[in-house]
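FAQ
Q: What does a multi-component entry look like?
A: The components come first, one per line:
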Amino acid sequence: MQWKKLLALAAVSLLLLMAAGGVLAQESQKIVRFTEAWPTYIDPAVAADFSSSVSVANLYDTLVFPTYDGEVVPHLAERWEISDDGLTYTFYLRKGVKFHDGSELTAEDVVFSMNRLLTIGQGYSYIFKPVIEKVEALDDYTVRFTLKKSFGPFLYALVRLYVLNKDLVMQHIEDTGEYGEYGDYGKRWLLTHDAGSGPYMVKEMRMEEYLHAVQFPDYWKPIPEDAPLEFKFIGTTETATVRTLMSKRELEISDFRQPAEFYKNIAKLPGIKVAKLFGGSTFYCMMHNQKPPTDDIHFRKALAYCIDYDAIANQIFPGARQAQGPVSFILPGHNPDVYQYKRDLEKAREELKKSKYYEQLDQYPVDLVWCAEVPDEEKVALLIQANAAEIGIKVNVVKTPWMKIIDEVATPESTAHMYLIFVSPHYAEAGSMLQSKYHSSSCGTWEQTEWLQDPELDAMIEDAIATVDHEERFAKYRKIQEYIVDLCPSLFLIDQPENYAYQDYYIDWVAAERAERGEKVNPVMGYNHYMLDVKVYPEKRDELLKK
Amino acid sequence: MNFSRYLARRLGYSVFVLIGLSIVIFLIARMVPGDPARAALGPRATEEAVQALREKLHLDKPIYVQYVYWLKSVLQGDFGESLFTRRPVIEDVKEFLPATLELALFAGLFMAVFGILLGILAARYSNTWVDNLIRVFSYLGIATPAFVVAIILMLVLGMRYEIFPTIGRLSSWVEAPPRITGLITLDSLITGNFAAFFDALKHLFLPAVSLSLGGMFQEARITRSSMLENMKKDYIAAMQAYGVPKRVVMSKYLLKPSVIPTVSILGLDFASLIGNAFLVELLFNWPGLSRYGINVMLRKDVEAIVAVIMILGIVFTVVNILVDLIVAYLDPRIRLVERGE
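Then the predicted structure of the entire assembly, as tokens:
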């Protein structure tokens, strides 16, 4: 019968297809693959989120390089001078640094990169825009930055100035862009190409799919022998996909956005471990400081004393640790001695009695908003609701999409009483968090739904950030943290680790090893995935596959 | 009514449908809360950059004016720029649509071939264990969502037995063929790159099967019942009485009229595959238009949302017209009715 022939044909085709697998067996590669949510931008003037930061950190070089202990060391700049008033920074560049096209990196490229970043106004430009007066090339190897006002963390912020090859970018500008004589400033071309001098260069960038980069053979720094020859950034965070890839040894490092069950199960596979890297992100319950009843300091403190922080840190976000004040413990400038609120219902009730709303609590229910895209936040919201009920405060839990939250918090009137939000620092120093979370200029953004408009605090933050002397600046940061903790504008819930499953058996990953030893990891977002700090042994991978 | 007039009338209706669709989706995309310009540039972009983008997108103008601007651009072939991929949406569509089409074509092929074959088999052996077995699998296949099938196949055939790859369209160690049509299987055949062809087939297998299973069993059920119904008709009895062999009766006289309802459903199912592929595309990290569509919706990428829905709408409309034409070809009665006879 005809259909029988057709069925037989289909079965044979299927067998052939399966047999083709033998012919196309995977060869061992010295590659590191990791997953992350997209979009990823490899244009340094656009890059600002996690995956983009990882990409540009590996494709581009910076004047200074961030270390694991929160300092910066010479990189493209061999040395530098800072004027006494803190307004002029002069950098002396290393000679003979090659871009990926073979041309030499000069001061003119640094000037171009900063001007391009400031003009486009995206990516990390927000760090520099308020402070840069001008940048000029004094000669081929000397570049000078003049600041509008003193900015103490400037040197540390320069880890976000990635140097582009000016000539290469200018060859690829499109005239139709909005930047006058610079056309589109090469933005279209830089979506899928790099113009860097970093240890890796783009081999292929497929939007929404992957970034495939290979080692740059003429890199100016010696490359460790077992460093990966290539890396691939895969644009997915689907748990089933990530799990399958990890177990097939086709993925070396997972993303950090997986549910707790994933990490628990994947760690049971041979050769896979879970690294917990604290990146400076803190989880807050932000309280509206101008809206009754959370405008009352005693009401806020009552809430701060009734929360079960241990449950959040150990059960809802396993591996997290209770935040100590508004600045993550990982960030340089954190105050390790600042007061930490603990669950103490007696104290909570005492504070509540001092509140002007104590006698009329039933008239002042509070709305607690959690972000619909982060399901674990609901558990925290329900826990806070239950904890608050113990002292007689009624909390309404409200699920809201992220885009709506951004709209809602734009005005004090439309902002709800409380929001559960994760915030990360802009640059690796306490000052970044203090400014973006508590300076009045950030009111109306999702980073500060507290609507804290305290002139005294503003002045303290501005003064600290303007202080060039490192020790003096850090002392001021510590004082500000004490002030904020006393004011209790937010509930400082947890410092959130980023959990990564990784192939411990055949890769050595410095950041994971440091975390395992209890040492600090790199506080600058993206640099824990610096590929020269990873070693890969493909023969061990093959051995694992044979088992 | 002659064929060209019939076609012209169908196309005319379709234009109205697409205009209506564009208005509805344009309004919905812009009424979702959130400022698309701010979302695109991030919370820390300068206000000047955000304002410039708002003006570029005409978001500072009333919504009907925005629609007129949009329609004018679309008529010139410009669907605007994606706020997230930062390039013309039409370029994104050109890049991602072939991946979805390739997936849908293979899934459609599975659906049509195996669906009809299983239907014939079930009808031929109706009320035997063969029919019962197909029935059980059909219920399971129809009731199980594609993404569940995808996860099961991925875990069993991808992870446990490692027969098929579970991610992307090609293995990283296989050289991709130059892009001609965007369909890797076709491009690799055209360029004689057989390693890429087989690798692409292997990558297609799991997502295509996951996607096609529900539709395939649905076609099987429809084909079966249609064949059984036609079996009772007089002309079949007459054929059998003349001593025409059963094989000939089934393949020549019974199959053609029996697949008419299957073809109608098949066409719609095929069009739905493109829109419904998103979870399968997400799971297999398949860089297709459905996955792109979901991502742009989550990011409130207004121009891209409208473009993707419009493209899907156009595909749906075109497939519908094609199905009507095929059915009209298969069933002469439909042509007679259209002629008013």
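Q: Is there any commentary attached?
A: Sometimes. For this entry: Chain A has a mean pLDDT of 92.
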